[in-house]
Amino acid sequence: MNPQFSPFEVYVPFLQSDKRYVRLQGGYGSGKSYHAAMKLVITALTEPGHRIYAFRKVARTLRDSVFTTIKEVIANTPGLEDAFKVNNSEYRFTCTRTGSEINCMGLDDPEKLKSFNASLIWLEEPVPEMTLADFTQLQKRLRMPGVLNQMILTYNPKSKKSFVYKEFEEGSRYSDQEFKLITTAKDNPFMPTDYIRSLEGETDKVEYQVGTLGQWAEDTELLIFPEFEIIDELPEGKESYPIGIDFGINDPMTVIRTCYDRENIYIDQLLYQSGITSPELVRMLPSLGVLKSDIIRIDSAAKDLVEQVKDADYHRAKGAKKGPGSVLNGISKMKDKKLHITRKSLETISEFEFYRWKTDREGVKQDIPVDKDNHGIDAARYSLSEFIEKRSAKFEAPRLVKRKTSIGRSRMGYATQRKRK
Predict the structure, then answer these.
(1) Closest Cα partner for 317 from 382, 268, 411, 259?
(2) What gap in Å lies between CA 228 and CA 335, rounded to an integer?
């Protein structure tokens, strides 16, 4: 039986395009990712010799994004029942008819990126996740002889700070090599009417432009943290290294370690992962480098998590102080100092880079941050909530302790000692 693909009508020109660069730009729920996955499956199925890659910035997000979407396309298409072998541990699809492969990979795995050739590359969410360096590196891998070489970018146009805007919209070097398609939820025939109405009723101008219309928004003046520095690791010798935890199950469970001095705040992401329960997180804390003696401030709405962490002998854990104005107060404190974020804190860097003030429908800035994609920011705020304004008299400078974690790697942990009275 021949496969029977059923693309949305608006995406047919994309599936037929032979341009080297294809940009699927659009609003929320428009079907961009599904049709990019369809293009990968069609290519693997119809031509031998292809090496196809689907990329996210971080490998741990693959299972719940590109890998699952490709599986859905295969499952939803009659005639593909035995066409692909699926390797669930390596996130790989092998076409049994042509031998072509689809590999799902994260850009945070440098070993896997050292040497490979590709004919088709899909970048999922290059805005806001990826950098120009990522894009440049992958361009060099698009070099398979004898077949069409193509790169697909699927994204919501969240910020003009992105390399995608600068390279493709401001620049013209790719203008004769690209196909661009802008779609919205209205182009998705399966999208519920109520959802479309909710998008059309969005009162924030930037969210309306991006999520409803699929258009680039001018948000530079709305950015809350327009500048920060990327560093290799937290500095030693600071007074305190508190931990902040933002609770999530569908949203990512986020653990942040910070430190600070009179002029600076330093942030290090220890965990940013969805699908983790409170008991699982408690068991993970030692492998994350969290010490029993650490100051820990947890999202106070997660009362069960607070109690479970305390019951595990983290005696200095408690809910973060919240109240009217606590979010704005925390933001103000952080803006008063120079921010430094460790290089490995990929998701938290992305959050700080695009965190912005809310607007009304006319674009007037409100004194309210957009409550979205702020899990690392909130965890950092919690960790600093009681310690940023004054130097604590209760603790000496931390000592570094080297130990083995449960995953067998040596880590440098931070310990503090209570002063004797």
Answers:
(1) 382
(2) 10
